[in-house]
Design brief:
8-stranded mixed beta sheet, disordered N terminus, 188 residues
Length: 188
């Protein structure tokens, strides 16, 4: 799966590619996540809670690539990872028809179509799999740009978890969003 997006801003051309992450990407993903996770306002996870070990990241990517029910995508400009998206299925039978999306875009690339391209590829992957009916995600309530991006992609707000995230300067709510896939009965 490859989705290329060219975006023209004034006189410069910005080119990046979205593709499935491979084991060979493990070191660059760890480097990318190290930067993203050091900003407490970019993720609900702290660096020590994530796969910031190259060996562990390789194992995770092997499982993802082996035809399982998970998906990892990278947005790449040149040889640099500028965005990362994962989709993990519900782990209990009663929610196994759902898949949870987590996404980040490097701050230098926000507002340039990277998030839109990652989401489009993720939704396409989930629909092609035929195994899921619903994509779910959560986003910081103060991240208006991300909420608008998800809404533009067809996600709707389902709820709010009040004071869910403890940040250095207080608490923030999480907004719960979802999208029913086109392969879902009643959504075709």
């Amino acid at each position: 799966m490859t989705d290329t997006l060219d975006h023209t801003e004034l006189s410069d051309i910005i080119h990046f590619v979205v593709r499935e992450a491979t084991v060979a990407d493990a070191e660059k993903i760890v480097d990318y996540l190290s930067v993203i996770l050091n900003d407490p306002y970019s993720s609900i996870s702290d660096p020590d809670e994530m796969l910031l070990n190259v060996h562990r990241q390789r194992e995770h990517l092997r499982r993802t690539q082996s035809g399982g029910r998970s998906c990892s995508l990278v947005a790449v400009a040149g040889n640099k990872i500028i965005g990362f998206l994962t989709m993990e299925p519900g782990r209990r039978r009663k929610i196994s028809h759902t898949i949870e999306l987590g996404m980040s875009v490097h701050e230098d690339w926000r507002g340039r179509g990277v998030g839109t391209a990652l989401i489009k590829c993720a939704v396409d992957w989930a629909e092609r799999s035929g195994e899921f009916e619903k994509i779910v995600l959560n986003v910081f309530s103060g991240n208006d740009a991300a909420i608008r991006l998800y809404q533009k992609a067809g996600f709707v707000i389902e709820g709010r978890l009040v004071r869910q995230v403890a940040l250095p300067d207080g608490f923030e709510d999480l907004v719960l969003m979802s999208k029913f896939l086109n392969n879902t009965p009643g959504n075709r």
